[in-house]
Amino acid sequence: MTAVSGEPVLAVEGISKRFGAVQALSDVDLDVHAGEVVALVGDNGAGKSTIIKVIAGVGPADSGEIRWEGRPVTITSPGAAQSLGIATVYQDLALCDNLDVVGNLFLGRELGRLGVLDEVAMEKRSRDLLHTLSIRIPSVRIPVASLSGGQRQTVAISRSLLGEPRIVILDEPTAALGVEQTAQVLDLVERLRGQGLGVILISHNMVDVMAVADRVAVLRLGRNNGLFDTGRTTQEEIIAAITGATDNVVMRRRARTGRAEEAPDG
Amino acid sequence: MADRGKHRADEPAGPAGPAAEAQFDPRLLVREKGAAGYVEEFKRRVRGGELGSLPVIVGLAVIWIVFQSLNSQFLSPQNLSNLSIDIVATGLISVGIVFVLLLGEIDLSAGAVSGASAAVLAVLQVNNGWHPLAAIAAAVAVAALLGLVHGVFFAKLGVPSFVVTLAGMLAWTGFQLWVLGPSGTINLPYEGLVAGLTSTYFTQLIAAYGLAGLVTAGFFAASVLGNARRRAAGIPSRTMADVILRTLVLAFVVFGVAHVLNQYKGLPLALLIFLVVVVAADFVQRRTRYGRKVFAVGGNIEAARRAGINVAAIRVSVFMISGAMAAVGGVFAASRIASASQATGQSNVLMMAIAAAVIGGTSLFGGRGTAYSALLGMLVIQSISSGMALQGVSNSIQFMVTGAVLLAAVVIDSLSRRSQKASGRA
Ligand SMILES: Nc1ncnc2c1ncn2[C@@H]1O[C@H](COP(=O)(O)OP(=O)(O)OP(=O)(O)O)[C@@H](O)[C@H]1O
Ligand SMILES: [Mg+2]
């Protein structure tokens, strides 16, 4: 089990969001503590990326509450999320292919004086950062377009860590990666937790999830469908929650009596 | 596998750490010593579609060789000196176009805005008796305002830039005619400040040579200092041989230009201003936070937005720059013929300004390009028209040849974009 303090760093409650005819999120809750990895799982289109974008200020929710260290906040822009200490690695990475690795790492927070870039300082910090994260890239001065999918992924992750965030959100960080790179990203997630950061990890890979997550939140069709402790649950149970096989008598009873807040005791 | 991550993380991360390790990474793109290294890097660039200014420089060399072999007057100091002044007006407009192209947008109003600004300048100076400098400032300010209008319609209302600036082209042409009034032409004083912009030469030999020396020394000093900083920070730097080689190439070019110019009337003021503007624009684009944002918006709007960049503000500001540069170009166009007329900025000025930027290697797809493409592209276009004029070839052929060169440039742009994509995701 994890050594998690009482108050979550980030908590969202009752989030709903609609895209035209699609109710992408209905009344979704999610929280993450410092030094904790929360996996967010669910089938394609379950709303995982949508809730992430709500938290990251990219696509604000229609209704619901976000609390940061217990105090209600509104996050209406990516900048607002960043200044709170929320760093996000998007599923589609959001890198500028025409800029080099250094340019992408520092995009939006370039170092320099009087508007003039300090390329030397940025390059040095980039190399140091990539080094401490054991990330191997042919050169920090080549355009991101000429990196492999996995290398682009590692650049996107490193980018999120530059701002010294409190919470890191990773949307399917290992989807495009090979075996070794996946292991490195999972290592990295564990190191972040070790440094006391909260991590929200979205993944379709149950083995990865069971390996690094402390808790697993399941989304199904835009709703919470269970919250599990990895130490006290099985992969099958989580998969059942993802696919909806738990839509049984027990679940229906729980839905009547209250939200599926507590992890089922395995 | 977990071990792998750990033992690296435990290594000392002192300044020498990453650099030293990087040296031994076989995949690291550090240039090998000697000529083989240059060949290697060149191959990599060609494969990756990072051709930059290379095709245009090769093209320019070919054009000069062809025309010189046809007519020995072509590379004469007089012809080259005149050529260097002829590129200035449209070249300045092209510098603004480069900014717009970096966003992946287009400004079709630049020609009309330059004509309208020239008209404003002439009316204020000649009819209203303003000081020429005040009139120039007013003309540039009006043009920046017109750019602001384009930018707001584009960035805030989401009207495609193509359409906004097409409307602007029509409207500002009308504005130009209205400002000029019934006569249609306003003559500027021949001896005045405005006319002097394109008729002034620094005739002393020391001017051109001194400038060439300053540029070379400045480049060398900046390279050496930059290298020292990089070494102090423990990141890869160029070898001294590399720096010297680059400095020598630069010295060869700038002293060559100075030598040619000095054989005619000396360093033209107009050329000096144009070069200063190009270098300044390049600095803004590549070395400032603002320029980085322009490139980011041109590369991936969504990424820029998520990085907290105010995309709308960047877009509006770029259209303002384009308007202002169009006005500066209009001032030089008026200066060259000492008058502002209904023809100023009309006909093919806009097309040449856009063609120059593209021929010079700035991508139409946004996110790739440099201010130097305005200079190089204008040199190509003006060389073709000058060479053909010397041969007595009619306008019709000139247009067709310039069209073919533009097409070639766009094909190169598209192909290099494709090979960039292909080599992008291994
Ligand atoms: N910008 C949008 N406009 C309209 N509908 C959207 C938009 N973004 C997401 N949706 C819809 O919202 C729902 C949730 O999408 P979301 O991207 O959050 O799924 P996801 O759980 O991240 O799926 P995946 O595992 O495939 O990434 C889907 O039905 C999707 O079609
Ligand atoms: Mg998703």
From TrEMBL, chain A:
Keywords: ATP-binding, Nucleotide-binding
Protein name (database record): ABC transporter ATP-binding protein
InterPro entries: AAA+_ATPase, ABC_carbohydrate_import_ATPase, ABC_transporter-like_ATP-bd, P-loop_NTPase
Record-linked SMART domains: AAA
Organism from which the protein derives: Planomonospora parontospora
A GO molecular-function descriptor: ATP binding
Domain ABC transporter stretches: 10-246
Name of a matching Pfam family: ABC_tran
TrEMBL record, chain B:
Gene Ontology molecular function, alphabetical: transmembrane transporter activity
Keywords: Cell inner membrane, Cell membrane, Membrane, Sugar transport, Transmembrane, Transmembrane helix, Transport
Region (Disordered): 1-20
A Gene Ontology cellular-component term: plasma membrane
Transmembrane regions: 51-71, 83-103, 110-127, 133-155, 162-181, 201-222, 243-261, 267-284, 312-335, 347-365, 372-390, 396-415
Pfam families: BPD_transp_2
Cellular compartments annotated: Cell membrane
Membrane topology: Multi-pass membrane protein
CDD domains: TM_PBP1_transp_AraH_like
Domain of life: Bacteria
Biased composition (Basic and acidic residues): 1-11
PANTHER family membership: ABC TRANSPORTER PERMEASE PROTEIN YPHD-RELATED-RELATED, XYLOSE TRANSPORT SYSTEM PERMEASE PROTEIN XYLH
Job description of the protein: Part of the binding-protein-dependent transport system for D-xylose. Probably responsible for the translocation of the substrate across the membrane.
Protein name, as recorded: Xylose transport system permease protein XylH
Annotated organism of origin: Planomonospora sphaerica
